[in-house]
Amino acid sequence: MAACWQQVDDFEALLEPFTPAVNARRLPRTLAGDFQGLAERLRPRAEAEGGLLVLSEAMLREVTDADPRAMATLLDDLRRLEALGREPQLNVVTRYPRDERGLGFPVDVYSFHVDRAPVDADTFLCTYAGACSEGLEPSDAERLIDDPTLRAALRAHHGQDDGFEAFLSEGCFDLNYRRRPGAAPFSFGLGHLWRLAVASPGATAPPCIHRAPDEGGQPRLLLIA
Predict the structure, then answer these.
(1) Quick check: 105 and 145 in contact, CB under 8 A?
(2) CA-based diameter of the chain, in Å?
(3) What is the pTM of this model?
(4) Residues near 109 by beta carbon (within 8 Å), at least 6 away in sequence
(5) What does the alpha-carbon distance between residue 107 and residue 87 come to, in Å, rounded to a whole number?
(6) What is the rounded distance in angstroms from the CA atom of residue 127 to the CA atom of residue 191?
(7) Were both Cys, which of 80, 82, 183, 200 would link to 140 (CB 3.0–4.6 Å)?
(8) What is the residue extent of each domain of the chain?
(9) Distance separating alpha carbons of residues 206 and 225, to the nearest angstrom
(10) pLDDT tens digit string along 202-222?
(11) Tens digits of per-residue pLDDT, 163-190?
């Protein structure tokens, strides 16, 4: 059976080990607070940073007119993940860098991809404001470098046979996917806390395939750990 995401009822269940049949878990939440207003207030700083602002707690507290309910939720989420030994980040995003090398397909966060780590790992993700991330079940996706035409284009770009597989790995070309015809992605939704499987040595599930959305002119406020 192909792996898929699973909804859970509490934070402890979110942390249960992945299985070959489950490669992502979602803790559904309906959050109170003006998260979009906070993202809009921080939009100029994000633009000044090239489209991505890594928001420290000190910077967050400087927004004195922020909705206190939103502020409390963000700080609580940071504390909860820090208690697990993680290093969570709050990001305000107006745009991510685009891959404009013209290699046949883009290798950036807007492309369906999986995360990879050299040690056992996972990824926590929550979108509080703006467009939401999307995911694909493994049976709905195909790896781009398995397409003979795209693989040939990358080989031509590389220019030699020696080291080609290392080139694919080092350039993260082997981590990118596309939808199979007729397949539909699922939305991560607003406020929900997700935990995603990662490609790593001890992984018990296939990595979760996901992508960042087109921002659509609105800043995003998200947590990643």
Answers:
(1) no
(2) 58
(3) 0.92
(4) 96, 211, 212
(5) 25
(6) 6
(7) 183
(8) 22-224
(9) 19
(10) 888 999 999 999 998 899 999
(11) 888 888 888 889 999 999 999 999 999 9
